[in-house]
Every structure is written in structure tokens, then in C-alpha cells.
Design goal:
With 141 residues, the chain is mainly alpha-helical. It has helices at 6-36, 42-61, 72-80, 85-100, 102-108, 113-136. α1 packs across α2 and α1 (6-36) packs parallel to α3.
Length: 141
């Protein structure tokens, strides 16, 4: 007979929380380096980790899975150098509207696959270059 082991649950939760925190630190560091050309401040890193934790708790309360910090935005910011909140609010509104309006979603879905593929390659190349830039700035022993 199988039983619930709290130690397994706590161990898994601790590992996943640490993993998300490390990924968030990497994303914020890459974003500030690529978008602003500077290192991330401690307040920015702390705020990002707290925000990620709060989003995970809210998601759990409404029955969702914990949120994962996605690095695609890092690539977009490094490529375009656009970091204005206004732009993110407008894009968020368009995405929400597309989610509730099938006609708009079908219009967005008409973008050809090669165009999407080219955009994806560009974004992930920017992510890779941002990571290499962060690693190369550290002294090697």
C-alpha cells in the first residue's frame, strides 16, 4: 500500500522553489544587462523573486500550476532594447483580447510558420548571447 510522505513533498517543493528563484535571478540579470547595460540591483532581484513567489501562491489558490519565469522576454528585450511598461501593457491587452475574441486570434494565427520560426531563432539566439555575455564577465580561475 502506498502512503503520502510529507518529506518527499517538502523536498520536491524546496527544489522547485530554488530552481525558479535561480532562473528568475538569471532572467532579471540578463534583462538589466541587455536592456539597460548594467547589473541588476539587489532590490530588483528581491522584488522579482517575491513577485514570482506571490504569483505561484495565487496560482495555487485558484487551482493552477506554479508560474515559470520565461526567458523569451529576455531575448526580446536584448534584441529590441524596449523596456517601457507602456509597451508591455499594450501587448498584454492585445493578448488578452485575442484570448477572448476568436476572430482576432484567427487573424494572429495567419502568420506563416517560417516567419514564426525566424522570430524564434532570433529570440533564442539573443538569450544565448546574453547568457554567454554574463558568463564571460566573470573571472575564470
Amino acid at each position: 500500500m502506498r502512503s503520502f510522505l510529507p518529506s518527499v513533498f517538502l523536498s520536491t517543493t524546496r527544489r522547485s522553489t530554488t530552481s525558479v528563484a535561480v532562473q528568475t535571478i538569471g532572467d532579471v540579470s540578463s534583462t538589466t544587462m541587455g536592456g539597460f547595460g548594467r547589473d541588476a540591483k539587489d532590490t530588483e532581484l528581491g522584488g522579482a523573486i517575491k513577485g514570482q513567489g506571490i504569483c505561484g501562491m495565487i496560482g495555487a489558490l485558484i487551482g493552477g500550476l506554479p508560474a515559470d519565469p520565461f526567458s523569451q522576454n529576455v531575448g526580446l528585450i536584448c534584441t529590441t532594447k524596449v523596456v517601457a511598461k507602456r509597451v508591455f501593457v499594450i501587448v498584454s491587452a492585445i493578448m488578452l483580447l485575442a484570448g477572448f475574441c476568436p476572430k482576432l486570434m484567427s487573424l494572429i494565427a495567419t502568420v506563416p510558420q517560417p516567419v514564426l520560426g525566424g522570430a524564434i531563432i532570433t529570440v533564442f539566439a539573443a538569450i544565448t548571447l546574453s547568457g554567454i555575455q554574463l558568463i564571460s564577465e566573470q573571472p575564470l580561475n
